[in-house]
Write a structure and sequence with these properties.
The protein is α+β, with helices and mostly antiparallel strands. 45% of the residues lie in helices and 26% in strands. The protein has one domain: Histidine kinase-like ATPase, C-terminal domain (Heat Shock Protein 90).
Length: 159
């Protein structure tokens, strides 16, 4: 795929990188002449995935940071993020959420359910709402692979 059809970035897991990702994603998606809603959803999705990788990720085994890719084939937008995983417990929660989303016919119900859970049992700094937001608000399909302590999450939406 040519560089004009993708954004590839290797990221050090620091919070100040989020603004750069948002700017690059916005510039990339803006060049595709899509609706503002689609552009905003794509930037939101990229932001949520980066935030998750920074919060829950770690260096990849053998070294390496977060890998971010945003690309299009003209028919769909695909965002892929890969990062190491600190603990098996964190990967289980993430995988559980993605599987729940993949198997749901109504992402809005999952989003609402998660909001209600948070209202009943708030945990400071731990909402785990981002993946549900990507599926519901952003209308992206989520998938993942987990191999050799590296989690790769893929978010895809038809144009």
């Amino acid at each position: 795929m040519s560089s004009s059809n993708s954004v590839n970035i290797t990221i050090n897991p620091t919070w100040n990188i989020i603004k750069e990702i948002q700017e690059k994603a916005s510039k990339f998606i803006g060049g595709l002449n899509l609706s503002k809603d689609f552009s905003d959803s794509t930037v939101m999705c990229a932001t949520e995935l980066i935030e998750n990788a920074i919060k829950y990720g770690s260096e990849k085994p053998g070294g390496g940071n977060i890998e971010f890719n945003l690309n299009t084939d003209g028919k769909k937008i695909v965002i892929t993020i890969s990062n190491g995983v600190r603990s098996e417990d964190e990967i289980r929660v993430c995988v559980m959420h993605i599987e729940k989303i993949k198997n749901s016919k109504d992402p809005s119900a999952l989003y609402t359910e998660r909001l209600k859970e948070l209202m009943k049992n708030p945990k400071p700094g731990v909402s785990q709402l981002g993946l549900f937001r990507i599926a519901y608000e952003g209308r992206f399909r989520l998938d993942y692979t987990y191999r050799d302590r590296v989690l790769t999450i893929t978010a895809c939406r038809k144009i």
